[in-house]
């Protein structure tokens, strides 16, 4: 039977089919399917132990799989050696040769494959120019900053001139300022090259800013695969909703009201008439309402919004924004407001939110309703 993925005539670059990776009783990945478009920037996002690095290493050929298939550029590479898969990989650690210059680190892999010196020089020059490494080519790794070392590690992958690049948390060892700078550089690099890039991170800011699509993972399963804005605005379950967003989404447990499209949260009843339901809900069904802090406004409620009052329990200035903590329906509530405004502990406030921008989940399954 022909098991070739249906990628003929399409722009699919990497295909994973029914992938299982087990370590004894532990199922690191199970039944995982994934298609990555040619030229796409896909981010694998999730907490530690979710399987994102395991999936990346399986695509790279660095670990053996239990079952399933991996295809790259239309070729079944399930059991191929890493060097034969047409990939370039950038690791979390720079893994540079300390006694070699930047030039020698960039060219070492090419020299080992017997590529002519002139072509090696051309490839190194091109990668060094793109990554602003030309003035550093004679330096040793010890003479470089962390950001410069990571550029060299990226350049070492670029000189291979492959179709697929794999990044395993490449910025996690850098400070916040360098991470922000290299995020921009990696995004610009992808725009210049147009190659397929698969990027592993636990940092949602990296995922939201870099990705064409995000695959949010938990316990070896992809929970949601969608563009960043869709993952943010319409999370498919409570896990995704709580993982994406900083500060996290506010959650309120309640019951669907028999009086109509409303949810009862303690002593509060929130009308959900504007909410685009995907399911028919029976009276009394236990649900969870999710509202993002930035979707809550202070002052007079706009039309079709739900309004309530509270008292500020805590003020967290964050520069451009300020976080206010209060309570609603017996639950803690976080509100993100403009950082230029002044607030104080104990101050009474009126706040509101538009139910159509909220998320509603089944409390038992966690699935979006």
UniProtKB/TrEMBL annotation:
Subcellular location: Cell inner membrane
Keywords: ATP-binding, Nucleotide-binding, Transport
InterPro entries documented for this protein: AAA+_ATPase, ABC_transporter-like_ATP-bd, ABC_transporter-like_CS, ABC_transpr_MalK-like, ABC_transpr_MalK/UgpC-like, Mo/tungstate-bd_C_term_dom, NA-bd_OB-fold, OB_MalK-like
Topology term for the membrane: Peripheral membrane protein
Bilayer-spanning residue ranges: none
Signal peptide span: none
GO biological process, one term: carbohydrate transport
UniProt main location, coarse: membrane
Domain ABC transporter residue range list: 14-244
GO cellular component term, pick one: ATP-binding cassette (ABC) transporter complex, substrate-binding subunit-containing
GO molecular function, one term: ATP binding
Pfam families, alphabetized: ABC_tran, OB_MalK
Transport in keyword set: yes
Family to which this protein belongs: Belongs to the ABC transporter superfamily.
PANTHER family: MALTODEXTRIN IMPORT ATP-BINDING PROTEIN MSMX, OSMOPROTECTIVE COMPOUNDS UPTAKE ATP-BINDING PROTEIN GGTA
Protein name: ABC transporter ATP-binding protein
The organism of origin for this protein: Aureimonas glaciei
């Amino acid at each position: 039977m022909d098991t070739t993925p249906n990628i003929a005539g399409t722009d699919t670059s990497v295909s994973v089919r029914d992938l299982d990776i087990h370590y004894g009783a532990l199922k690191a990945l199970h039944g995982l399917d994934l298609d990555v478009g040619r030229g796409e920037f896909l981010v694998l996002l999730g907490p530690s132990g979710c399987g994102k690095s395991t999936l990346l290493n399986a695509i790279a050929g660095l670990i053996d799989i239990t079952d399933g298939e991996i295809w790259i550029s239309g070729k079944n590479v399930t059991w191929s050696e890493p060097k034969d898969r047409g990939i370039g990989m950038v690791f979390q650690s720079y893994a540079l040769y300390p006694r070699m210059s930047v030039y020698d680190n960039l060219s070492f892999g090419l020299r080992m494959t017997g590529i002519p010196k002139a072509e090696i020089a051309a490839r190194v020059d091109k990668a060094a120019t793109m990554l602003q490494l030309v003035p550093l080519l004679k330096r040793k790794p010890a003479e470089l900053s962390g950001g410069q070392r990571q550029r060299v590690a990226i350049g070492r992958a670029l000189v291979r001139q492959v179709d697929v690049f794999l990044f395993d948390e490449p910025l996690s060892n850098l400070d916040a300022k360098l991470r922000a700078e290299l995020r921009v550089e990696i995004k610009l690099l992808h725009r210049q090259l147009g190659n397929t890039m698969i990027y592993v991170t636990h940092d949602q800011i990296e995922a939201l800013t870099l990705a064409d699509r995000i695959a949010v993972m938990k316990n070896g399963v992809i929970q949601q695969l969608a563009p960043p804005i869709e993952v943010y605005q319409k999370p498919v379950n409570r896990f995704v909703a709580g993982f994406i967003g900083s500060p996290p989404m506010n959650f309120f447990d309640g019951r669907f009201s028999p009086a109509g499209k409303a949810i009862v949260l303690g002593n509060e009843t929130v009308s959900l008439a504007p909410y685009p339901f995907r399911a028919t809900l029976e009276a009394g069904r236990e649900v969870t309402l999710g509202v993002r802090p930035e979707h809550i406004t202070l002052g007079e409620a706009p039309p079709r919004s739900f309004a309530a009052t509270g008292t500020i329990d805590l003020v967290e200035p964050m520069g451009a924004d300020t976080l206010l903590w209060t309570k609603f329906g017996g639950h803690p509530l976080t509100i993100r407001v403009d950082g230029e405004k002044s607030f104080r502990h104990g101050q009474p406030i009126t706040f509101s939110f538009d139910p159509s921008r909220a998320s509603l989940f089944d409390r038992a399954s966690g699935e979006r309703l």
